[in-house]
Amino acid sequence: MAGFDKVVTSYADAMAGLEDGMTVLAGGFGLCGIPENLIQEIKRRQTRDLTIVSNNCGVDGFGLGVLLEDKQVRKMISSYVGENALFEKQLLQGELEVELTPQGTLAEKMRAGGAGIPAFFTATGVGTPVGEGKETRIFNGREYLMEEAITGDFAIVKGWKADRYGNVIYRHTAQNFNPLAATAGKITVVEVEEIVEVDELDPAQIHTPGIYVDRIIQGSFEKRIEKRTVRSTD
């Protein structure tokens, strides 16, 4: 758990070095566990021509959806994009390139990228448009297609608690894609709800070791609910 102090105190410092044309990996699932303030900083900087890798693209007016408002995103690599009307509009008008990827494949692409594995074989997508143009091989009588790993110039991640050395714990389902993204960025920035003393984190409970993290910032979060469903009182 030893390391050096990675805490920054401004979002401008947290995203320093982000440039037009870069690839950004973003943790989160729907609106759960998204690095919402880091996304807002990307919007504020007006960085353009970005490739964003994320399970989804937020919703209209929140999460990654805000980056579509000024057309800062050139390409989305995602597994689910059904909650964003502006996303749909830009896609249909040819203003946004989209690479739809099966969810488990997307997760493994990030994990492989973080592990230094350049590619892997999966049966998911064989015989569908997902597999068009990709190399296939037969293993034990079954066809598999080759998927290349994903890495990014930046990874933006939302954690629950971290120490100043960058060791991170996620909370419940907010873990989702965050630890995968965290390993696959050349520069990994994590925003958390609380920065604690080093001895307050149980080493056995740490999800992302500080070796993967370059910058830590403490923020406050809206934690918006994507779809609220309540049980009938009848």
Automatic annotation (TrEMBL):
Which keywords has UniProt assigned to this entry? Transferase
* Gene3D superfamilies associated with the record: Glutaconate Coenzyme A-transferase
Keyword Transferase in record: yes
Which PROSITE patterns does the UniProt record give?
Answer: COA_TRANSF_1 (PS01273)
Gene Ontology molecular function terms on file? CoA-transferase activity
Entry annotated with the keyword Hydrolase: no
Q: Which family does it belong to?
A: Belongs to the 3-oxoacid CoA-transferase subunit A family.
The entry's protein name is 3-oxoacid CoA-transferase subunit A
Q: Write down the species.
A: Marinomonas pollencensis
